[in-house]
Amino acid sequence: DTFPVGCQVQGSVVFRDSTFHNNPDVKNSLYNTRHGMYHPNCGLENVLMSWGHDEYMYKVMKYNQFSLPQEAFYMIRFHSFYPWHTGGDYMHLCNEEDRRMLPWVKEFNKFDLYTKCEDLPDPQHLKPYYQSLIDKYCPGQICW
Question: For binding Fe cation, which residues are annotated in this chain's numbering (predicted)?
């Protein structure tokens, strides 16, 4: 909880607390409390975050009405939110659904980064298996 929740930095990389020292939000009393501009236990779905590949794929899945369990949607949406699922930060903003989904996000994260190997699998060998999953959970043409 080093940084005020709700700060927006464009075109910068957030690195240590020096990133925000010239940001006017640092002096805004609304942001300089434990909860910032949020209410306790408001739920992560109500917290403003950077928009990236996680949110994009989540929106694609929702729009196309993938028939996956809610846990899958949640894992995709929040798997890069490392301060929460790995650092234990922002728990004061979590609602019951967030706390229930946290173990699923942690489980998914085991397969996210640093799981690559140098020996690439044969795509033709894997295609029937993965095509059957696509046909089952997200059939038809996907709207991107």
Answer: 53, 79, 112
